[in-house]
Specification:
The complex is a heterodimer of chains A (264) and B (104).
Chain A: H1 2-14, H2 19-29, H3 34-56, H4 64-84, H5 90-110, E1 130-134, E2 139-143, H6 148-165, H7 170-179, H8 185-201, H9 204-209, H10 215-236, H11 241-263
Antiparallel strand pairs in A: 1-2
Chain B: H1 5-39, H2 44-74, H3 78-103
The chains are: A mainly alpha (264), B mainly alpha (104).
């Protein structure tokens, strides 16, 4: 319950599902095998997605059109991984988990100072871009979406990674959307939070039918994550983007090191 | 540029309401189920409630996609209605595979 609460809090803060924290806890400390830990984590990802998104609607932060477009790719990735996951060994999965976490941490650290908002409100944001009220800039800001194919490819990979490792997949999408596709951090986080629910649902029912989801454990984890995500929302509205990115990178590095040590 | 923002804000509010309802119902089912299960793990209704909570939880994002589809059709945003249908088809593959495994 407590780990679920902490994971939910961190997840809500970073636009991730919180699974990056829950999977290592259930797997390494609680002793569940990797696939069971990943499946339970993926169930909590759905809860985080719904709860966090419900809390951010009405502020123009969620880009519904971009989200739905990217879901075509992320859901396909989720379905593909959901169908093949039982043929992959746990050690392979754990190594992949370490690699993905380290890669993204490095990417985040190199983009700390970048901001993607245009403060001139007469610029046309295009059919996929948008505008929202940004407290850091003190007014309404506009952004345009660039390099959509990159975002689609990454969303597919994120869907794959999400189903295989029990994480939301925001771990991949948020950095790429902010670093290469012109989407501001808060919009990327809010849109990703909404998307991960659908991404997780693209594979969770198969794992549920395979018996990887233990109902009492999943129930406890979901309730913990729901409590924790309230705290994350409160804190996320008050923290600065730069510190969010720094925190994200540090935690990912730690997770990566833990998993590399386990599998070597 | 025509301003479509009010329509999109309406969709956002509807989705928000749907997500709150889904999460609340599943959290209640899971909390009651978990309470009963901790009290007596053998109770049939404890597992039933826990599973019901998980199924409601899994259904919420799917319902969100369905609501988005009907709204895009109402807005005559055919491109995004088409995109939404593709997402729905992908999700239905998973649900069909899961149901066929569950029945075996």
């Amino acid at each position: 319950m407590a780990s679920g609460a902490v994971a939910g809090c961190m997840g809500a803060l970073l636009g991730l599902g919180g699974g990056v924290f829950l999977v290592p806890f259930l797997n390494a400390w609680f002793g569940l095998d990797f696939k069971t830990a990943a499946a339970i984590s993926l169930v909590t990802v759905i809860a985080t997605s719904s709860a966090v998104s419900a809390g951010t609607t009405g502020r123009n932060l969620i880009n519904l059109r971009l989200g739905m477009l990217l879901e075509v790719a992320s859901a396909a990735g989720g379905v593909a991984a959901g169908l093949t996951i039982s043929h992959i060994s746990d050690v392979t999965l754990e190594r992949g988990f370490a690699g993905v976490a380290a890669l993204i941490a490095v990417l985040m650290l190199t983009r700390l100072e970048r901001r993607n908002v245009i403060q001139d409100t007469t610029v046309d944001p295009g059919s996929l871009g948008g505008r929202f009220h940004d407290d850091e800039s003190g007014g309404e800001v506009i952004y345009r979406v660039r390099r959509l194919p990159v975002a689609m490819v990454v969303s597919f990979i994120a869907g794959n990674v999400s189903a295989a490792f029990g994480i939301g997949g925001g771990i991949l999408k948020v950095p790429v959307l902010t670093a290469w596709c012109g989407v501001p951090m808060r919009v990327a986080a809010a849109t990703s939070s909404l998307m991960i629910g659908v991404t997780a649902v693209a594979s969770v029912p198969i794992q549920y039918a395979n018996g990887y989801v233990n109902p009492p454990l999943a129930g406890a984890a979901v309730l913990g994550v729901l409590v924790g995500s309230r705290g994350g929302l409160w804190f996320g509205a008050r923290a600065r983007s730069k510190w969010l990115k720094l925190l994200m990178a540090m935690v990912l590095m730690l997770v990566s090191i833990i998993y590399l040590r386990r599998t070597l | 540029m025509t301003d479509e923002r009010p329509q999109f804000e309406r969709l956002e509010v509807q989705i928000g309401r749907l997500l709150v309802t889904g999460v609340t119902i599943s959290a209640l089912l899971l909390a009651i189920g978990l309470g009963l299960w901790l009290f007596d793990p053998g109770r049939w209704n404890a597992l039933w409630l826990l599973n019901a909570g998980l199924i409601v939880l899994m259904s919420t994002p799917i319902l969100r996609v369905i609501v988005s589809f009907t709204e895009y059709v109402a807005m005559r945003q055919w491109f995004f209605a088409g995109v939404t249908i593709v997402v729905l088809l992908e999700l239905s593959v998973t649900v069909v595979v899961a149901l066929s495994k569950g029945n075996r």
